[in-house]
Design goal:
mainly alpha, two-stranded antiparallel ribbon, elongated, single chain
């Protein structure tokens, strides 16, 4: 099933998800290193990474929603896509609250901010698997007729 929102022949949602995943996972890693090393700088860095991750997650969600609308009703893909979206909204909310709790002193966030970020990162692993299930198993966002010798998406020729 082709993606509805494309740029240069590739699904925009799949291009954008690397940003929130990388930024939010990186923020959690920086939080862990901050605790171990007692580095105030890493706390501030994590604070800014979470903000960028939440914003980029919301942008990616717009294109994911456009693609989800194109999935036929009453299919497993529609259901998996809905769960993927719902849990991703929870992930973004957890990180947004974590960010909000940090705003007073980003260099030394409260424990609850760290817990929310870790839980959000764990749920992001689940939604990443669901996204992989959509693309790799159910073919959502994959060109119709895709094959190992398909022409470049920039060629203007169909994958058939």
């Amino acid at each position: 099933m082709n993606s509805r929102a494309k740029l240069f022949g590739h699904p925009i949602h799949q291009m954008l998800i690397v940003f929130p995943l990388g930024l939010l996972a990186g923020a959690v890693i920086f939080d862990v290193v901050r605790v171990v090393k007692q580095s105030q700088t890493l706390g501030t860095t994590s604070f800014h990474m979470i903000a960028a991750g939440v914003v980029s997650g919301l942008v990616a969600a717009v294109f994911g929603f456009i693609d989800w609308l194109a999935i036929p009703s009453n299919t497993r893909a529609k259901s998996v896509g809905a769960w993927h979206a719902i849990v991703n909204v929870v992930v973004v909310l957890l990180f947004a609250v974590s960010w909000w709790l940090r705003r007073g002193d980003p260099t030394s966030p409260p424990t609850m901010a760290l817990v929310l970020a870790v839980v959000g990162a764990g749920l992001a692993l689940v939604t990443g698997w669901l996204g992989g299930e959509l693309v790799d198993r159910l073919g959502v966002g994959v060109d119709d007729g895709a094959h190992l010798d398909a022409p470049s998406s920039l060629s203007g020729r169909p994958a058939r």
